[in-house]
Design brief:
This protein has 536 residues and is α+β, with helices and mostly antiparallel strands. It contains 17 helices and 14 strands. 57% of the residues lie in helices and 15% in strands.
């Protein structure tokens, strides 16, 4: 089930990336801006502020105040078409692109050059959406164009840097988890929190004043922000379930499936022209609410279960979740109240701190898992390896023999060393061990490249070859083994080696199972052993 969810999530994420790419290449708002730089900065109060019969918000300003301050009027608006007039002539406009996915330009900063004349400046804001009143999310400021922009950028730098660090730590965790997965598959929780960190960092960076000022394509920024909100809950809930609520087998799927359904719903609403992403964001926030409920429940359950236990990481995770949920709730409140565009810096710092601590703890845990895996692999290899020859032992042979029940083409070779007892009795067990090791070396050299070699007893060896036409393969290798034995014996006449051999191959015609094949190979091996004895 989880694999299917992740596949769907990846597919939807790819679709979202395509949509964002389209907006990236289609350009942004139609802004006509020409600035007149000065050095002063003042906060302005409109002369009048009213709503006309068309629902347009109309504000007027004294031009002389703006010119005295530096000649540039600065303000930000949310989801409005903005037009600025001087003496009934339009001098600035910012109009939404009216596209399928976002009809407005979202939140945008406006910098308007004021003509050097003694006239009244009129600012008109018309909401793109009938159900929303024209809003201004900051005060009006007059001053030097460059100073106004740079002060906004500088003021949001801490949040922007924090957001970039979120992305970097997330990418590091994803890359690290991939490396770890190549070493020891399992435990994808680092990927979940890494992906969550990347998504949060990208969304947070896009909402900073610096990006709002610098990124002129506000349609792209708006589509990106709304889409990325949809995808944050899935990896986060997966992570929460992995670290806090491991026993949950079903409930975690509810917020995840709702988030995936959210993407489908907002796409359908946008493509049918019913609602764009701004209007349907309520659906996304509702899915966020479900995810928040799940996270709170997981945190409370963890705190209750570990109340009497000294599991510091579990308690830290649970407590941090509650803090992060409060931060998320605050961000949602900022959005609906229109209090600010700029993200809360302390909330971003808390998120970054949590991500850094999680990265550190998960890396430490993964290193421990790697060490455990290496130890387990070492002991497994030790348990299945013959200590004298380095070949697989009888335990490994018995295990692999049973696996032959599903094979159709294989051969089993049985071998026995002649005269090992005589060597042990006359030259000692050290010489007998040398005899065994040299024989094992020859067997592995000849058969090891095509099959797996085992030492199954004191002087008994077996080889399993699983290949098409394995019978012909074995028949071609036996002369090679005889050549290796003869070459060794010619160079070591005082320590000759003799290996009795017999083999049998599987056949659909005979219907023999692996036990029958092994028995027949043994029979042929003993026949060969008797022949070698007689030859001596």
């Amino acid at each position: 089930m989880d694999k299917h969810i992740l596949r769907i999530y990846t597919l939807f994420l790819a679709v979202a990336c395509i949509i964002v790419a389209v907006y990236a290449f289609n350009g942004g708002a139609q802004n006509r801006i020409s600035m007149y730089p000065k050095d002063t900065k003042v906060v302005l109060t409109p002369i009048t502020d009213s709503i006309d019969e068309t629902g347009t918000r109309v504000l007027t300003f004294d031009t002389s105040e703006i010119i005295a301050a530096g000649g540039c009027l600065s303000f930000t608006s949310g989801f409005n078409d903005v037009r600025v007039y001087s003496r009934e002539s339009i001098i600035y406009e910012s109009i939404g692109v009216r596209s399928t996915f976002l009809r407005s330009n979202g939140n945008a900063w406006h910098f308007v050059r004021v003509p050097d004349v003694d006239a009244t400046l009129t600012v008109k804001l018309k909401s793109v959406y009938d159900s929303y009143a024209p809003t201004i999310t900051s005060e009006f400021t007059a001053g030097d164009y460059y100073n106004l922009r740079s002060s906004l950028i500088a003021g949001s730098t801490p949040v922007l840097i924090t957001s970039i660090l979120d992305v970097l730590f997330g990418l590091i965790m994803i890359a690290y988890s991939y490396i770890i997965w190549r070493i020891t598959p399992g435990k994808p929780r680092i990927v979940y929190i890494g992906l969550t960190a990347v998504l949060i960092g990208l969304w947070s960076a896009g909402e900073t004043n610096a990006m709002v000022v610098l990124l002129n394509n506000r349609a792209l920024a708006g589509v990106f922000a709304f889409l990325i909100l949809i995808f944050i809950p899935v990896p986060y809930v997966m992570y929460i379930r992995a670290v806090l609520w491991k026993n949950d087998k079903f409930i975690y799927r509810i917020p995840i499936c709702l988030s995936l359904l959210d993407f489908v719903v907002v796409m359908v609403l946008a493509l049918t022209g019913v609602m764009d992403l701004k209007q349907s964001v309520i659906v996304t926030h509702l899915t966020w609410a479900i995810s928040i409920i799940y996270v709170v429940a997981a945190a409370i359950i963890t705190l209750m279960n570990h109340k009497k236990e000294k599991d510091s990481m579990a308690i830290f995770n649970a407590a941090s979740m509650l803090v992060l949920i409060a931060v998320a709730g605050l961000e949602i409140a900022y959005y609906w109240t229109g209090v600010r565009i700029q993200n809360d810096v302390w909330g971003r710092v808390l998120i970054l701190g949590y991500i850094v601590l999680l990265a550190n703890r998960n890396i430490i845990d993964s290193l421990k898992d790697i060490e455990k895996g290496r130890r387990a692999e070492y002991y497994k290899k030790l348990a299945n390896t013959d200590p004298i020859t380095g070949l697989a032992n009888r335990t490994a042979f018995n295990h692999d023999l049973k696996k032959l029940s599903g094979e159709k083409s294989y051969s089993i070779i049985s071998m026995d060393l002649n005269n090992l007892k005589e060597v042990n009795d006359t030259k000692g067990h050290l010489a007998g061990d040398g005899y065994i090791m040299k024989a094992a070396e020859i067997i592995n050299k000849v058969f090891g490249k095509d099959g797996k070699c085992y030492r199954v007893g004191g002087d008994e060896f077996t080889v399993i070859i699983k290949k098409p036409e394995s019978d012909a393969v074995v028949a071609g290798l036996i002369p090679q083994m005889n050549e290796e034995i003869n070459a060794y014996n010619n160079n070591n006449p005082s320590e000759p080696i003799a290996i009795a051999l017999g083999y049998e191959s599987s056949s659909e015609e005979t219907g023999f199972d692996f036990n029958d094949i092994l028995r027949l190979a043994d029979v042929k091996m003993y026949e060969n052993k008797r022949w070698l004895k007689a030859k001596e």
